[in-house]
Amino acid sequence: MSSQGLDVFDKTLQTTHIWLNEIGEQLIPDKQLSWRVLGVVLRNLRDQLPVDLSAHLGAELPLLVRGAYYDQYRPAAQPLRDRDLDLFIARINDELQDNRPVDPRDATRAVFATLSRHIPRGQIEKIQDSLPQRLRDFWHNAEEGVTPPPEARAGKGTGEARPPT
pLDDT tens, 97-128? Predict the structure, then answer.
């Protein structure tokens, strides 16, 4: 029996805590900051992607993280016209100003590395291929030394199971 009464809630909480811990290990072990960083970077990444690809990424995220990802979603504005690494980092920096000081490049690296560990490799490659070259290179550098868990390497991801469509 699950502690909350629904296995899907237990699974998303467990997975989200794993992701936040990984981000915190690379930044500051502060779950509130890690949650803020995760949401900010994911939303900015989402806005860089074509709508169909952003939807595919959203489907791979744990249910709880998916809610943060889709917060303030405006598909008609995707992808942004001004897609550039420096602008991407500047947007993240602006959104993190009201938090404990964190370097926006480090924040982005931490989230990219976490995504690379938990999202199927093929999906990560599709996302990376859609990004401007400098942002793609930045992500590749963030991945150095990242070993995805077996389920991500097998293409299953670690997001919760979704009902069949």
Answer: 987 889 999 999 999 999 999 999 999 999 99
Give the span between the Cα atoms of 30 and 100, in whole angstroms. 10
Contact 96, 107 (CB under 8 A): yes
Locate 91 and state its tokens. 């947007």
Distances (CA, A) of 157 to 24, 60, 107: 21, 6, 22
CA distances from 52 to 4, 57, 121, 126, 149 (A): 33, 9, 18, 11, 25
- The three-state secondary structure class of 129 is helix
CA distance 61 to 157: 8
154 pLDDT more than 60: no
Complete domains list, the chain, with CATH = 7-153 (1.10.490.110)
| Dihedral sign of CA atoms 149, 23, 111, 158 in order | positive
> Omega before 164 cis (within 30°)?
no
As a whole number of Å, the CA-based R_g of the chain is 15
SS3 28: coil
DSSP tag of 77: G
